Structure formats: structure tokens, C-alpha cells
Amino acid sequence: MFSCYRIRPRHSRLLGKFFPAVRTLFSEVTFDRSSRPFASEILAGLSETSAGPRGERISSQSLMTECQREAAEVLLAPEVDTDKPLVPPTDLILTAETGSGKTLAYLTPLASRLARYITKDSPEGVYLMVLVPTRELVQQISRSLVCKVTTSLLSHHPVLRSSFLCGGYSIEDDVKRIAQEDRPHVLVCTPGRLISHLSTTSGLYGLLKRSLDLLVIDEFDRMADMGFLPQLEHIYSTLLGSRSDVGIVLCSATISPVLDGVAKRILRHGFRRTGTPSASSATPDKLRQEVLFFNADKFQETLEAVIYRATVGCDTATEWTGRRVLVLFPTVRILQLFYVMTKARRRQKGTKAALHATRIAALHAQLSNDKRRSIADEFLYPDNTCLHHKVLFATDVAARGLDWSRISHVIQVDVPHAQTEGEVVDQYVHRIGRTARGGSEGASTLLIPRQLHLNGLPRILADHSLEVLDEAEVLETYLSKLPVEEMESAWIEPGSCQLGYRSLMAFYHRQLQLSCTHDFDVRKGDIVKCVNQMVFSTGLLKRQPMLNRKFVDQLGFTGLPGIRIGSYYEKAREAEALQNDEHVEPHMHENVNATASSQN
């Protein structure tokens, strides 16, 4: 029933570095002409073959994932008698494990429908709109999938055009791109930017209201986690509330009961479901899951050892020259603290260099738009000739949706923060889903402080069969210790250490409130001691950074040993003194002197 196709050499020249991605796209989702009516414009650029890109024999059945087959059955079904031939007969909820090709599962069939019916005589308008939660995902879908498929592979069908709307560009740039340059039939956008344009850009509301035939909401559960449900409801009521002739596809790795209720309100009667909505079943089969309980006073060394193990120390044969590792942190401030330290320690003389021959980058929301795009591009479209390993320190902005190319290992610093057990498991699944994609092998390592998990692995992750690593063995095998005394000169922004320290305190205080994430019986004093030891493990400071009294009172940490209280000016004065290698004695909490000296 299914046949494998090969893109002709002329298309390889057109696509350049995007050629492998597009070749994979069509080898996975192109159907036999007799069984599935793909657009002739798409098939015109392909020729039948029974060999793979390197001459090897390929089974066509194995090239398609289950979710792609099921989605195609719905989205490519023959049209019924209707005035809207672009609209599939039924709406669709598409759920499947991470890395199984959900984006291609909806994008290619819908692009096929557009290619069959849009001609140079068709009215101008946006026929297909894709909503995604982050600007990085907008860039990925728009650049590597929509734009390259519609403008390069379908070069003989030039009337099919695409564009995007997201943050990082001015409203004026958006209007110029949409109205004058691209004039798209396919639009990929974030909810916030779309709503801004609906209220400020003259003519866009009328254009979408008149022409929109297909709406895709990708990463539906991530949208809910990020608080986009009110915006999605607003978009639906504004553009589609009075229309029943718009096809809708909801796409996600997991669908909770709450989201299921939202879906039933917006989808047309008789909608279809594909895939398995269970979070546990959404874990890739070839993913090796590990957990390491670290001692807080050795956290920095443990982090470097695990990274070294995943890059330089990995003895697994791979298809690429350099390995790529994603390290996920709970907050931006915590990320910045350990990112700067890890880079600084790599430069210090005498270290085994856990990141030797490795490029390190950080991705989070506080970077400039140009910097975020540059970092995302490097990891989304890597140079296959690069000899360096690549490690990306990131917050959850990178944990969902993006198809990071060839991520071999995901390292998580503690359990995700969420309000319910289901949300914690969902976030964990999406984090580890950045590796082992498309049937490839991958690994995930969860780092948890031993002092705060006296009962071992949290019970909500018991079904995931995590292998427990021995911290002492990992440290002995993969790391040559660098004395912390040598690291004091490496720190150039003491104020950032204070912010990271404060964020660590707040994070573990929030985790303490959620019994579903931590099955332990610890006191607030244990959290203070654990966080202090984690900061000391970096070799940055000889005593704890100061916190303001209001923050300490809010956490309920007043009077606890190990807390230093200082005003804004005292903290600034101490940061300046540390930078100038001077000594300053601030007003400290009465219980600090004894504990600070004992912990150092």
C-alpha cells in the first residue's frame, strides 16, 4: 500500500542543508498514488524507488509512524459534498508519544489539500493557520517545514505561500511581511501576537474571518500549562464562534480531562481521536531513563560528571561526530548560576574538563530575540561536520515542541514543578521526549538532592522504571576534582549568585508545598542547608549570599540557621566587595555566625 519515494537531485540543490529534513518528511508520509490522493504537485517532485538515500533497502511500512498513518486516514479522507473542499470531513485530536512525528502527521496532509485546490485564480487569504506556544516553535515549523516544503519542493506550484507571526519582530515588520511580501496561504503564529494583530492591524480580522478553512493548535497541553487557554478561547470565539465549516486539529503528547472538556467545546460533532493519550505510554520505547541522587555539597561536580559521561565519556557508537546534550533547569536564575560556573570551571587549569571539546550555550526567555534565534538555529540546524560536542543549558522554553536535532541525552535538575501529579508526569514526559525521537535511541538522567528525598524516587515516577546511578561511581569514573579554592577568581558577577541563590530557595520551598512531587518528611531547615551546600559546591563563595527580610518572612524561614539577612544596599555593597576581593561585614541574622563557619 505504501511506497518509498526519492527526491530528485535538483531538489537537493534547492533545499541545501534542509534537504535531509525534507527528504525524511516525504519518505515518511508520502503515499502510493493509487491508495492516497496526494497532490500531483507534490508527487511531481518525487520518483518511486525501493532504496533509501544511501542505496539501502527500506521497508515503506517502517518509514511511517502509527500516528502519521492514523492522521492521514482522517485528514486525507475523500471530500464529502461541500462548498469547502479544503476542510477534512471530521475534526481531529492527535495524541502520540514525543518524537513520533505529530507535526508532520498533520502538516503534510493539510499542505496536500491546499496544493490540490489553491491556484493562481484563488482569492487571497489565509486558508491554514497553525497556533503554537513559543516563538522558537514558530520559527521551526515555519522555516524547516512549511516554508521549505511550499517554496522549495513545490517550486513548480509557486502560488502556495507561507509566513509567520511571533514575538521578536515589530508589528510594522509583521504587517509588511504579511501584506506586501509573503501574502501567505499558511500562517504559523503564537496566540499572543495573533490577538495583538486582530485588535490593531486593519484588515487582518476580516481576512481570517472570510478565508480561514483549517486551524491547527499544536502543543495543546503546553498551551494550557503556559496559561494560553483564555487566549485560545478568545481566538476561537472571535474567528470561529459563528462558523461550523472550519476544520480543527488539536495536537499534543498528552490530553488531560480538563483539556478534553475544552476540546469537546470547540471541535465539530463527530470528531476523531488518534493515538494514546496516556502519559506513561507516551514515553519513547528506546529511551533509557536514569536517576541520580546527589549529595548537595557535590552538586556542581556531579553535574559536570554527568555531562562528561553523556558527551566525552560516552562509548556508544553514533552516526554523528559530536554529541548534543540538553540540560534543563527549573528557573532562569538557577540556570544562569550553574551555567556561568560550568563554563568558568572548564577554563580553569587542572580540571579534567567535563565539557572538553564542547560548546556550551544557554537558552531562556531573558535573552535578546536575536540571541535566542541564533542559539536555536545552531541546535535546530547543526553543522554535521562539527567535531565539537554541544551542550545546551535551558529552561522549559526548550523542553516542549521543538525537534532538537540529534539530542542524545537530556539531563534534568530535579522533578518538574507543577500543581498536580498529572501535570508533573506530563512535564516530565515532555522533557525526556526531546531525545529518542523518531525511533532512535536516547537517554535521560534526573538529578535529585539526596537530602530532600529520604524515601528515594518520588512515587509518581515509579511507573517509568528509572535506573538508579551510583553517585560515587559516576564521580570517580568521569571527573577529576578541581579544588573549589581555585574557582573564586572565576566568578565575575557576584550579584547573579545572589539571584540564583534566592531562586533556589524559592524553588525548593514551592516543591515542599507539593506532596505529590516529593515523598519526604523534611523541615524548612533542611531546605536551607541543602541550598547552601549546592551554592558552596560551585566554589564561588565562602558564605551564603544575603536575602532581604521580606523574602525570608514570606518563605517562613525567619530564625532558621544558615540564613543571612541584609538590606538592598548591604547586598550591593557585598557584591561589589566580592568583585574587588575586599572584606565587608554586613548585618547578619543572629543564628548565622555559628552555622556559616561550620558549613564552610
TrEMBL record:
<comment type="function">
    <text>RNA helicase.</text>
</comment>
<comment type="similarity">
    <text>Belongs to the DEAD box helicase family.</text>
</comment>
<keyword id="KW-0378">Hydrolase</keyword>
<keyword id="KW-0694">RNA-binding</keyword>
<dbReference type="InterPro" id="IPR027417">
    <property type="entry name" value="P-loop_NTPase"/>
</dbReference>
<dbReference type="GO" id="GO:0003724">
    <property type="term" value="F:RNA helicase activity"/>
</dbReference>
<keyword id="KW-0547">Nucleotide-binding</keyword>
<dbReference type="GO" id="GO:0005524">
    <property type="term" value="F:ATP binding"/>
</dbReference>
<dbReference type="Pfam" id="PF00271">
    <property type="entry name" value="Helicase_C"/>
</dbReference>
<dbReference type="GO" id="GO:0003723">
    <property type="term" value="F:RNA binding"/>
</dbReference>
<dbReference type="InterPro" id="IPR014001">
    <property type="entry name" value="Helicase_ATP-bd"/>
</dbReference>
<protein>
    <recommendedName>
        <fullName>ATP-dependent RNA helicase</fullName>
        <ecNumber>3.6.4.13</ecNumber>
    </recommendedName>
</protein>
<keyword id="KW-0067">ATP-binding</keyword>
<feature type="domain" description="Helicase C-terminal">
    <location>
        <begin position="313"/>
        <end position="490"/>
    </location>
</feature>
<dbReference type="InterPro" id="IPR044742">
    <property type="entry name" value="DEAD/DEAH_RhlB"/>
</dbReference>
<dbReference type="InterPro" id="IPR001650">
    <property type="entry name" value="Helicase_C-like"/>
</dbReference>
<dbReference type="InterPro" id="IPR011545">
    <property type="entry name" value="DEAD/DEAH_box_helicase_dom"/>
</dbReference>
<keyword id="KW-0347">Helicase</keyword>
<dbReference type="GO" id="GO:0016787">
    <property type="term" value="F:hydrolase activity"/>
</dbReference>
<dbReference type="Pfam" id="PF00270">
    <property type="entry name" value="DEAD"/>
</dbReference>
<feature type="domain" description="Helicase ATP-binding">
    <location>
        <begin position="83"/>
        <end position="273"/>
    </location>
</feature>
